[in-house]
Amino acid sequence: MTEIGVGLVGYGLGGRVFHAPFVAATPGLRLRAVVSGDPAKVQADWPGMAVVPSIEVLLALPGIDLVVVSSPDHLHADHALQALAAGKHVVVDKPFATTLDDARRITAAAEVAGRLLTVFHNRRWDADFLTLQDLIASGRLGEVVHLDSHFDRWRPEAAPVWKEAREGGSWQDLGPHLIDQALCLFGVPQAVSADIATLRPGAPAPDWFHVVLHYPGRRATLHGSKLAADHGLRFAVHGTGGSWIKHGLDPQEGAILAGQRPGDEGWGIDPLPGLLTTGEPGTTPGPHPNRPGDYRLFWQALVAALRGEGANPVLPGEALAVMEVLAAAQRSAAEGRTIAL
């Protein structure tokens, strides 16, 4: 595989911001076609790009080795299964699927087809999360006893788009990011307790969640609200050796929306440092510099994996574990009890 031909299914926010620019910026990948009902939108960003009306047409094109599924959530399973049946490697955007059963079906189909399957859990390569991993590995925080992870927004009125009405609401949308990060740090929890609610008048789906992951001697709380005018808090992490508080969101999505390309000068640099407080008497919070974030690392690892030169950047089993926690939280909220895993 000297050059891996890529077909992209969908050109909404995911395809336009998180996939096409990074495929184009990754040596060894070539974006060859996009499935979209709006060819002008695609070609405004990528002049001359082949735009096709359906995944069936895409799969019939020559030179497509890898299919990136960035269609609406409810189509993820069908599109991934079609691509695998056609002998293609597959990247599925998060959420992996709308149900755990569908996620398992996709995983089984990849095994039968002998094709690489991965899920785009890009927030592993956020500046703040990479920084947190370094802090934990260095021992500066001691043994972490509480991770508080937020993904809040200020959207007091629900927009008339499918994402606002998706089944599972913001938990289905943002929960996978927060779950995957917690599992990367601490593994699968013993149990899950969740409160998922709709707080905005007239909102068609849940827009608030507070989910607690239970670990021995540790708790991880995952929180999201669309009614947070002050939505700057991203992490509050407390350990036996200190605390780290981080505000602000990784800058890569905003940079693409502003017209930058991956790898431009200053790429992935988060200018807002977190505050680190050690547990030593008399210490005060001080700024701790961030590592640069870089979603290109996912795509570079994917190329290496497809060439047999490296590991899959997000294993299907890891993505299934995220789906299991996602489903357990929905069950916990519906039944009003803690769900053991």
UniProtKB/TrEMBL annotation:
Give me the stretches of Low complexity compositional bias: 271-283
In terms of superkingdom, the source organism counts as Bacteria
Keywords, alphabetical: Oxidoreductase
Q: Where is this region: Disordered?
A: 268-291
Named from the GO MF annotations, one term is: oxidoreductase activity
Q: Where is the Gfo/Idh/MocA-like oxidoreductase C-terminal domain?
A: 134-341
User: Where does the record place the Gfo/Idh/MocA-like oxidoreductase N-terminal domain?
Assistant: 4-121
Stored SUPFAM superfamilies: Glyceraldehyde-3-phosphate dehydrogenase-like, C-terminal domain (SSF55347), NAD(P)-binding Rossmann-fold domains (SSF51735)
Which family is annotated?
Belongs to the Gfo/Idh/MocA family.
Q: What is this protein called?
A: Oxidoreductase
Q: Which organism is it from?
A: Novosphingobium aerophilum
